[in-house]
Amino acid sequence: MTDAILFTVDDGLARLTLNRPASLNAFDVELAHGWRDATAEAVSRDDVRAILIDAAGRSFCAGGDVRAMATGMAGGSDLTALAHIINEGILSLTSSSVPVVAAAHGTTAGGGLGIFMCSDYAVIGGRSKIGSLYANIGLTPDLSVSAHLARAIGERRALQLVLQDRLLTSAEAVEWGLAAEAVDGADADAEADAVRERAEQIARFWLAGAAGAYGQAKRLVRSQPERSFADQLAEEARSIGAAFDTPDAQARVAAFAAASSKSAR
């Protein structure tokens, strides 16, 4: 693993921390490879049942490292190759059956928006700003932004972001459905800590409950576009039957039934 991304596992929770704070966690070649490797490990480990993505410094992710693009890339083919590497990590997370929460303080922009939308539940700060901004430097959306943004907030609102240099406030991001909730802090550092703390609470809630069922629910929603409506119904029926046969569900169903019987007396 690389220092550009930190990876730890603690009691079922894998934490991936973007760690290029001086560059607002913008992606260069090192972070791209580290991201791909860390996400692949997180979703493949049997001891990981929830994933948290956060970031060091004063912002979540500013997208691609424009200075590195300008000085270290021979042409567009280099940028395409870099995007493919980062996309491997995006696919690892979104196609997995492990629920993912993001702690996104500060600013999220460009490709950082794609990393943000890898999460299934996002917590942001009251001071947070979120936007696209690709066209400001003559580039087009990548890292799943064109795929996920319209699904998350609707086509018209997605077009408002990608066709303007607008940054949403935290209240707008929650209202539009990009983020699940926003938390405040006395200053920027305290707010970043509060965002990380709340995101970990969400992850620990999954871990304390039926983490496998939450993961399968995430998989059903994320993978739905691959199937027709009839096939989705069939997959739901198959999944709930498979879940019913797990020891966790058997214990929870029995406990619920027992409690219901007791309360009915």
Automatic annotation (TrEMBL):
Protein keywords: Lyase
First-tier enzyme category under EC: lyase
EC number(s) on file: 4.2.1.17
CDD domains tied to this protein: crotonase-like
MF term (GO), any: enoyl-CoA hydratase activity
BP terms from Gene Ontology: fatty acid beta-oxidation
InterPro entries in UniProt: ClpP/crotonase-like_dom_sf, Enoyl-CoA_hydra/iso
Range of residues in the leader sequence: none
Cross-referenced PANTHER family: 1,2-EPOXYPHENYLACETYL-COA ISOMERASE, ENOYL-COA HYDRATASE-RELATED
The protein, known as: Enoyl-CoA hydratase
